[in-house]
Amino acid sequence: MSRSSIALLAEGQIELESPLERVLRERTDVLAAARRVLHIAPAARLRATLAALEQLDYFAAEPTPGSLDSLALPFVEESFDVVICDGAEDGRRVPLREIARMLRPGGRAVLTAPSGESEQTFAELLARAGFFATRVRERMAPTVFVCVRGEL
Asked: 124-136: per-residue pLDDT in tens?
């Protein structure tokens, strides 16, 4: 990163792309077609980007602080093609069973492993929740998982 980029970043004039944003843009095709997308606990920048994409039927769910662990969202089962959730913030646990409930069979989840939880433990939790998961390693932590929902 150049010295001028660092100065602009420090002044808040530019933002760094998160690992989740980079994976969505570069390593998946989930945003390339018409899909119904649920974004849980969205960061403002990514929310604005996704909401502006005309091909997406985009919904954002913003749980109250501390409620992500026991999240129960008011959507019917199997109502989304894609669920995105950044569970790394504040060490919150990602509500995997709730995500699996809302995804259609074969639907995809793009999730970050919560801080403080090992990749292996999170991968095991994904498998128990009915996901086939692939780790996508980026230069920055946290690790992003791209998952496909199997049959429950």
From this structure: 888 888 888 888 8
User: Which residue type sits at 20?
Assistant: L
- Is the sign of the CA dihedral 44, 50, 53, 56 positive or negative? negative
CA 38/CA 35 separation, integer angstroms: 10
How many separate domains does the chain show?
1
Tell me the CATH number at 138.
3.40.50.150
For residue 115, being part of any structural domain is answered with: yes
Q: Is residue 5 part of a domain?
A: no
Rounded-to-integer distance, Cα 146 and Cα 131, Å:
9
Q: Range with the lowest mean pLDDT among 10-14, 35-39, 104-108, 116-120?
A: 10-14
Domain that holds residue 112: 18-149
What's CA 69's distance to the chain center, in Å? Answer: 15
Q: Measuring CA to CA, how many Å separate 143 from each of 104, 116, 130, 134, 139?
A: 24, 12, 19, 10, 9
CA distances from 112 to 84, 121, 149 (A): 9, 13, 16
Task: Using the predicted structure, report yes or no on whether residue 4 has a pLDDT greater than 50.
Answer: no
Domain presence at residue 6: no
